Structure formats: structure tokens, C-alpha cells
Amino acid sequence: MCAKASMEEFEALLKESFEIDTPEEGSVVKGRVIAIEAGQAIIDVGYKMEGRVDLKEFANPGEAPSIAVGDEVEVYLDRVENARGEAVISRDKARREEAWDRLEKAYASEQRVDGAIFGRVKGGFTVDLGGAVAFLPGSQVDVRPVRDAGPLMGMKQPFQILKMDRRRGNIVVSRRAILEESRAEQRAEVIGNLTEGQTVDGVVKNITEYGAFVDLGGVDGLLHVTDMAWRRVNHPSEILSIGETVKVQVIKINKDTHRISLGMKQLQSDPWDTVEKAYPIGSVHKGRVTNITDYGAFVELEAGVEGLVHVSEMSWTKKNVHPGKIVSTSQEVDVMVLEIDSAKRRVSLGLKQTQRNPWEVFAETHPVGSQIEGEVKNITEFGLFVGLDNDIDGMVHLSDLSWDQRGEEAIQNYRKGDVVKAAVTEVDIEKERISLSIKALGDDTFSDAVDGVKRGSVITVAVTAIEDGGIEVDYNGMKSFIRRSDLSRDRAEQRPDRFQVGDKVDVRVTNVDSKTRRLGLSIKAREIAEEKEAVEQYGSSDSGASLGDILGAALKGDKG
């Protein structure tokens, strides 16, 4: 009976042992540390199986292994038995399997996960997420490029999973997303405490050509270059430096974009409030040239108050010259206030108005009729331009070059650079014109010769040349020409060959042309005038006397 009972117990135990499942390879099992030797932990995973795991597999990045005899741990069973009869187990693989389950849940719920950067690879870094290794791209390390990632290595910190693929074993994480979210929360909190018009202290973080970014304690505001000072600022670095603490005023807050506009000049009094009183129209002030353009130069009267000297108001005499050839940047100049527009914050200034009008000065010092001497600056088709005092010119028209020559002929006698003398004939200050005459300094032979002679006068001339078309005659040195048709009233007598050089002939003046310096003469006109006079004196149309009788009586009367 006893043997039989023992046999039944043995069968029951054997059956029970068969019913107990042997752990499946490739699964995670629980074990207990039974010994630590030679840098390894010996772990009993049950089922009369033991395995070895390197102690380093129990350490987090940057930390010492935390394991002791008696600890219960989960390991991954690779194989049930190796060549030495031991189970092949791994703590890393167990942690990885555990981590993937945990990370997939975090990824699905968009939760943050903790990890530590432990290595550098091409394009980024490797991160231990508690057993699973993830890739951290360089662009996702921080909100700004990181030059030295050393301080971040081995430090436990939160990450956001961007992408994961368990089948391929790929996980991509971001540290930047956490920082941006944190910054957004911080920005929202800081912005919520700010109001437009509020004065705050900030630290200059970055300087650009158009302004500076100021940290207000977790949120940046833009201080535009035009809001730094009332005066012109060419570059923000002129008045700010990185790291400097500045007092600024909140000008505008955009609640949607969280953009903050700041100002420094708003904390100072606006100089334009007193411009009209400080700079009355017509007053002269000293200023500094701050900028030169094609259309003029900007002159600073005081910090924050600039005026424009238009190119037309820069010089009395230099009309088509670039402003840069008249003034230079930073030069101190005297200017006159011409106009003020406070609404548009504009001041019109004049540079030439601080000096006397050179045409006015010339008119005072050189009255009409006075004589000047100057160099021929230019020769044009209508006259000469002569250089005068104070960089102004006077013009000698063609008609004022010579008494005896036509202007076109007389101008050929002059060259650029010649020094000439002339008389002032007119000064037009408004039109900025000075008229000169060279011939006015010489004798007018024509006027002298024809002095007292007028149209209708009868004068005696001397024949100097006989031509087919008429005769040339001389009167007090002035040459004139009598055409064939004017040689006689009688057509048969209109022959030039009936005259000889040296003959004295009485002629009637038909025209005195001072411009062409010519006398119009006619023998025929004299004869007609004499006949008319005789008829009026000695007869009438109804007396019955013949023309011969009248002329005969006239001749007798003359003899008597």
C-alpha cells in the first residue's frame, strides 16, 4: 500500500511539472539576484534556470549601477540554455521592451518623456529614454543653435516624441518643442502682466540693422531703430550694446502674435513740441549735416530735430551740382529756417539765404553804365558769358559785341579764356541775369554819322562805286547803297552808268535803321518830293498851268 501511494504521488508531481509552462524565448521574465561576481549579476529566473547580466546594464546614463543581492528584476530571455547550461538573459532588452510599451502610450497621448543625451551622432545626438534609444536632431536641441552641447550630456530632462516606428526601432524626439512650449507659457504669463504705456527694464539680447531685441524677463520685445531716440540713428549699435540693461516703454502688444513693440524715445520729451518757438521762420541757426541725398542735405538743429536743405536752396550760383559737392557729412553750417510743418515734422532750411544774393551785391557795386572786366567763360550761338565776382556770370549778346560788324562775325574774334571789358547795361535780380555790352565802351560811328538825320531829310552823298544794280554812296564815312529803281523818277534815267565815282548827289533819306546800321536813300524819292512841293507852292490842279510852267516858275523863284 505504501509503495503504491508513493508511486501515485510521484506521478502527480510529474504531471504537475509538465503542466507548468517553460518560459518562452523572446519574452520578459522576472528574476532574483542571487549573487554578484566579476562585474556580473547572477539572476535566478526560476524554472531551475540561472543567467548572467553585466552590471552596466543596470545603470542609467551617467550613473553607477544600482543593483544588490535579493533584488527582483525583469530580464529578457533570449535563449533557455547556452553551451554552459545557463539561460541567456538581458536587462537592456527587457528595459527596451518595457520602454517601448511606455513610450508608445506616451506618443499616443502626446505626453512628455524623460531621457538623457548620452552620445553624438551625425546630424544630432542619441538619447536614452529609459531603455529605448532615440535620435535627437541638431535642429531640435534648442530654440537657438547650440555651439556646445557638453552641459546637456547625461542630464535627465523632458523630451517630446515627434515620430516612432517600433518595427524599425526608430524614435525621433525634440527638446526644442518642450522649450518652446515652456517659453510660450512664460511669454503668455509675462505678456499678461504687461500693459501698453508701461515702463519696464530689459536686457539687450540681440542687435540688428533695424533695431534691437530686448528681453523683458522671458519674452522679447522689438525696439525699432526709429524708436530709440528722437534724433536720427544710423545703426542701433551707436547707442546700445548687447547685455546692456535699458529702460523702455511698451508701445504696442499684439495679443495674437505675442509681439511687443518697445520705445526709448517715448520716455523723453518730444523736441518737436517747442520747434516753432525755438526756430522761428527767418531765423538763422548753426546745424550739423547728418545725411546727403541727390535732392538735398539733412541738417540736425538739435537732437531729434532735422531739417532739409533742398538742392535749390543750397547755393545762389551752383544750380546743377550734387549736394555732396557743396557740403559734407558732419560739417557744421549756418542755415535759415524757411518753413515749418509740425504735423509732418518737417523743417525746410536754406543754406544760400545765410549769404547775400550775389546779384543784389553786384547791382549795388556795379550800377548800369559802370565798366567791368572779366574772363570769357563760355561762347554760345547767342553771345558771350563773362565771369564776374562771387561766381556769377554776365552775358554779352551778339548785338552788343560791335558797332561795325554783325554779331555772328564779331563773335569769331573771341576765345574762351579771353579777358574782356564791358559796360553793365541791365541787372535783373529776380531772373538772376546781368546784361553786358562790349560795343558800349567804343564810339558809335553810325550814331555820330547820322546825328540829326531823320526820315525825309535831304542829304548830299558821294558816289564811291558803280554797279549794275545801283550805286554805292558815302555819307560821313557810312556806306549806303541806292538801288537802280531809286536812281531817278524817270525810268529812262535809272541808269547807274550816268554817274561817276566822286559825283556829289542829293538824296532823300527813306529809312534810318540803327539795328542794321543802314541808311535808306533814294534820288527818286527826292525828285517826287520836290515836284509835290512845287505843285503845292506854284499851282493847283484847277489852275490850268502846265507842269512845265510850274517848274519854270519854281526855278525862277529860286533864282530870284
TrEMBL record:
Q: What family does this chain come from, according to its entry? A: Belongs to the bacterial ribosomal protein bS1 family.
Q: Has UniProt tagged this entry with the keyword Ribosomal protein?
A: yes
Domain named S1 motif is located at 26-92, 110-176, 197-265, 282-352, 369-439, 456-524
User: One Pfam family, short name please?
Assistant: S1
Recorded hits in Gene3D superfamilies, A to Z, give: Nucleic acid-binding proteins
**Which InterPro entries has this protein been placed in?**
NA-bd_OB-fold (IPR012340), Ribos_protein_bS1-like (IPR050437), Ribosomal_bS1 (IPR000110), Ribosomal_protein_S1-like (IPR035104), S1_domain (IPR003029)
Q: Which GO terms describe its biological process?
A: translation
* Alphabetized UniProt keyword annotations: Repeat, Ribonucleoprotein, Ribosomal protein, RNA-binding
Q: Name one GO cellular component term.
A: cytosolic small ribosomal subunit
Q: Which CDD domains match?
A: S1_RPS1_repeat_ec1_hs1, S1_RPS1_repeat_ec2_hs2, S1_RPS1_repeat_ec3
Q: What is this protein called?
A: 30S ribosomal protein S1
Q: Which domain of life is it from?
A: Bacteria
> Where are its TM segments located?
none
Function statement: Binds mRNA; thus facilitating recognition of the initiation point. It is needed to translate mRNA with a short Shine-Dalgarno (SD) purine-rich sequence.
Q: Name one GO molecular function term.
A: structural constituent of ribosome
